[in-house]
Amino acid sequence: MTTTIRRSPWLAVAVVVSLVALACSNSSGKSDEGAEESSQAVAVDAPGVSETEIRVGGVASITNPLSGKYDQVALGVKAYFQMVNESGGIYGRELNLVAEKDDNTSNNDAAVQELLTQDDVFAVLPVATLLYTGADRLVDAKVPTFGWNINAEWGGTAEEPRDNLFGQNGSFLCLGCSSPVAAYVADQLDAKKIGLLAYNVPQSADCATGDEKTFEQYAGDGSATIVFADKAMAFGGGDFSVQVSQMKDAGVDLVVTCMDLQGVVALAREMKRQSLDAPQYLLNAYDPELLTDFGDLFQDSIVLTFFAPFEVEDPPEGLKTYLEWMEKTDTPANENTVNGWLNAALFVDGLREAGENFSRQKVIDAINSMTDWNGDGLLYGVDWTKQHIDVPNPQCNAFSRVDGDKFVPVFGEPGKPFVCLDADAEGVPEGTPSA
Amino acid sequence: MADIVDYAIRGLPIGCVFALLAVGLVLTYRTSGVFNLAFAAQAYTSAAVFYVVRHDHEWPLLPAAVLAIGVVAPLLGLGLERGLFRHLRGAPPIARTVTSLGLLVAIPEIVKLWIGDSAQKNPPPLWPVTRTDEWLWPREGARYVLDAGQMATVLSTVVVVVGLTILLRRSALGLRMRAVVESARMAQLAGVNADRVSMLAWALSSALAGLTGVLLAPLFAELVPLHFFTLLVAALAACVVGRLVSIPLAVLGGIGLGVLQAVLAGLLPTDSVLSTGLRPALPFVVLFLLLLLRPPRLGDRLETDPLAGVDPPPPPLVSVIRTRSLTLTTRALALAAITLGLGAGLFVLDDFWLTLVTSGLVLAVVLLSFTVLTGMGGMVSLCQATFAAIGAFSTAQIVDATGAPVVLAMLAGTVVAAAVGGLLAVPLLRLDGIYLTLATLAFALMFQSVLVPLDWVSGGSTPIEVPRPLIGSIDLADDHAFFVFAALCVALVGAIVVQLRQATTGRFLDAVRGSEAAAVAVGISPLRQRVVAFALAAGIAGFGGGLIASWTGEANYDRSFQFLYGLVWVVLVVTMGARSVQAAVFGGLAFYLIPELVERLPLIPDDWASGLSVALFGLGALTYARHPEGIIEANSSAVIGRIQRLLQRRSSRHPQQPALSIEGAGAP
């Protein structure tokens, strides 16, 4: 029996590693996968299209650490498809959402690849994910893709526009850029002293940086300024007692945040506890269930939506149809399902524009030639010739105030639910009510 | 000064939350000997039960509370004791730590299979008012105001602390509980029914977890397991103040932490580097510093069973002693399996399955770091994902800044990770057992809170891109080529690990693991060997991190390196077999393939698939009680035993002398 302690293999290992390293450089990273896909996309021989149906598949972070209801986006798509199918489908074909992948938050790329290689789909919709690591794969494969634009990967550049990725109202997202919206809200509420709170995670901090730039860029006589800012909150942390007491001492009269539901609820509770009487300006909070659960905490807060709020007077046709089908299909009406509905609507309009001999590329080109797509008035018109690579100007959104257990549309006019703001204005821009 | 007092008072309620959690952990540790990280999962379970019966089925408060805290929680504790921890009573601390980590992962997923994955908003309170803001004390508008929830937390903390202190210090039951933890066999010799006492201890600590869960759930807007775990991790610093055994000190630690957090939030300028860097990471910084500056004394350890030494050492790996014919046979089988695997990857698997297999191989490189650290060194590190991230970020930054070939950058990343690991090891390795594990967890969380948000480390909100290598004329942008490259990397790192095991470091680590005193007596420096093992493991994880970044095209922390992944990985590796290379490879493959295979099982509902996979990974750790050597090693033993019997039957027909070897290089 021998117990030799051998050392020579270490030298061999070192030599191999060195040789490999010296022979190395970096790949350009371009694979031919996309080229192959595009050359295959011919007329109705396209993947996922048969004589009777057009198959699409979606991916969402159904399992996510925030318990976000990303799966609901698919409900909006299904409702829209049901409406289209009941009226005969498209070119005699039914629209079917055949796959709803759960990317478990971190496996987006694998879920996207599975859709493309296993599920035989013509287009990918809806995409509603916390991380969007599969975006490059979709761009390379040139598959028409529709989803909820909450990730920077949706947007492109002039050189690489990513023109097959379609968010619900444009694809470009710049979290760290200034935008006149928060300054306009402060102006409308006659708020002068802003409190700003964000987590110390990159996305949240970028958003807060954008807000800081906003109140610097759109400053004017008597306009609002940030008097308290804390961008170092621990993610998921529930103690805002010191921050609220400091905001109270500073006389804050509007609170702007870049936090999730847990953060804004914990903050609102502390504000209530310490009697800090200031509204919050909330993003992604248009959900009737929010009012059921936490309405009393958010009284008079302002909620931003990119679509016409359900309560507007003289609602646009698109909103009426959406609400009708939500009721018909027993689907909750909220921001998530509006997203899915709009994704499906844009896809169907793209198919119609592409013509009977449609292909993936024809659908993409058809949509990218639309200059004022508005989902029948459900959102402000999107110029798809531009909105892959830039934020629109003017910026048009709708606003609601929390009043009791209802959202009450504000700042717009009957028949004109959106307020458009000139991003190039000096000082706080005047809002222009628009349809 | 007035400001400081003002801020300090504001920190008291959250301090009581930390204190209550810390007391729960300390109670479990003192009465069961398990530092039960699954406490958070048990708390979540009771909160979920309370939510369902109170919110969904509208039960009255009292029956709902009795069911969640008085019935479900103790039953869960009893089940864990009878099914698991009773069998681990004499096992090394690593067994109990990994089992509790497995439960931490598995229990919430099992609960979610029952209650569904959708959000449970606005958890109902345990106090008899409908909303928190309807009851304020002393009055609305007063400078310091506590709501009903905060009052309940403060009062509960006081009651629990007083009650448990009396129980543990003054009652016969408390004395028996402590005796059973110290040595169940000694306690039994003294006439104590160790099983019954242990069951009572688990029921009690589990009920406390239930109370904590139901009490704290209304702090959150939604019922999410991660929130409980985040709070629990923050409370770890308080436990360490009490050296894991003192309830009064743990309470002081919790309240102190809450107060310090509030005072720093008030005094530090909010835009200062210190504020943005220190405040979010404060509990982890405190935990890390406490462990380094106030290391536990030997007497603090509960694992002091005087009869522990009578247990036999673990059996050797099946690859260590074998006949020449067996070695040749297993080598041939291994070669055939590798050839088949490569052939399948190159010619049979479609793009999707090839991606999964390649991802598994790439992860296997990181998992091999556990083979060195846990398998050979006997240490449980919860920061291997962090070392992988360090390797990935270094690779990405070097390529981005210099345009260097990515393989060279990966090697540089390996060196950086190894250097960080080595530097970290010097102070950390004065600790052992659970203290070392906690220190690595604190390091992982500090890295996540302080360094990951920085642009110059991670690239901020836009991850830095990392290209695929180009080796000579072979462009690894092609997935098939990268698959072969990944397989070669696994083989290379696996060979290094096998060499390491057979070389001086491996022998010395074995010696230190077997008996530290005996190792010192023959001139081996345990500290030096552990530092070497820690640095090597960090380097391997760093290399794996660089490989992951190149494979995925980016160094993306959220996608690939979150500290929670490190927890799942350690459970996976220990379940498969921490000491063998093939277990790491199987672990990597299982991590990616099992969820997809579960999803394709005919009887599994679609919305169960992902939760069930995670639960399976966690429950895998429960096999540790039966197979401490790991599932793969146990099965390898069985297969090799069969082959050996087959060969023996053959050799009895054709007699020849077997040559014994202990090289074992044929089947690592």
Describe it.
Chain A has 435 residues and is of the alpha/beta class. Helices cover 35% and strands 19% of the residues of chain A. Chain A has 13 helices and 15 strands. Chain A has helices spanning 8-22, 33-40, 72-86, 108-118, 135-141, 180-188, 202-217, 241-249, 261-273, 288-294, 317-328, 335-354, 360-368, and strands spanning 24-26, 53-60, 94-102, 123-128, 145-147, 165-167, 193-199, 225-233, 254-258, 280-282, 302-305, 395-403, 406-410, 418-421, 432-434. In chain A, strands 7, 8, 9, 10, 11, 12, 13, 14 and 15 form a 9-stranded mixed sheet that branches. In chain A, strands 3-2-4-5-6 form a 5-stranded parallel sheet, with helices on both faces. In chain A, helix 7 links the parallel strand 7 (193-199) and strand 8. In chain A, helix 2 packs across helix 5 and helix 4 (108-118) packs parallel to helix 5. Residues 1-22 and 30-42 of chain A have low confidence and may be disordered. With 668 residues, chain B is mostly helical. Chain B has helices at residues 2-32, 39-56, 61-83, 93-115, 148-170, 172-182, 184-189, 194-216, 225-241, 247-267, 273-278, 282-293, 324-348, 351-376, 384-402, 406-428, 433-451, 455-458, 479-502, 504-514, 516-521, 526-552, 557-560, 563-576, 581-599, 609-620, 631-653; strands at 136-137, 146-147, 322-323, 464-465, 469-471, 474-475, 554-555, 660-661. In chain B, the strands form 4 sheets. Chain B has a two-stranded antiparallel ribbon with strand order 1-2. Chain B has a two-stranded antiparallel sheet with strand order 3-8. In chain B, a hairpin with an 8-residue loop joins strand 1 and strand 2 (146-147). The termini of chain B are far apart. The model of chain B is unreliable at 658-668 (pLDDT under 50). Chains A and B meet through helix 1, strand 1, helix 4, helix 7 and strand 8 of A and helix 1, helix 9, helix 10, helix 14 and helix 16 of B. Strand 1 of chain A pairs antiparallel with strand 5 (469-471) of chain B.
